[in-house]
Amino acid sequence: MRKFYYMALVALIGIAFSSCSLIGGGENTPEFRLGDLQGLWQETNTQHFVRFTTELSDETNYLYGREWDEAEDIFEEDLLPYGNGWFKYWFETNGKLTEIHLMDNGGAEIPKVYVVSKLTDTDLEYYEKERTSNKFKFQKVVSVKQ
Predict the structure, then answer these.
(1) Cα separation of 132 and 115, whole Å?
(2) Count of domains in the chain?
(3) Same domain assignment for residues 12 and 76
(4) What is the pLDDT of residues 22-65, one digit of tens each?
(5) What is the pLDDT of residues 8-31, one digit of tens each?
(6) Cα angle, residue 91 at apex, residues 90 and 93 outer, rounded to 5°
């Protein structure tokens, strides 16, 4: 009878571990590379641009990025370094993208966390982690440029 309980316990532990890996994403979680993210992206059907650079920020593990909207007559060259329109970002291979938006007024930093659902040589799609209805689709414009 003791063997039966031992085998049942081993089976339950095995089931628990296998279901945890499925819940956590396991093999179903797409893997993305930082190099695929870097470059200039244009949001679909807009004049909103985002550039993910290779420029290291002042904080470990963060890189700098920039975003602007030409429909509002704001261009990349209009952005003052490390102010409005600039952000620090960190990209994890599990698709989690953290951006910390930098603000001119008082040096405020506004964090946003996104989940990348698609990243190819030409397409980027992600949504806000806390507001999954906020989805963004981009097309790559040019390759990496600082």
Answers:
(1) 9
(2) 2
(3) no
(4) 333 444 556 788 889 999 999 999 999 999 999 998 777 899 99
(5) 444 444 444 333 333 334 445 567
(6) 150
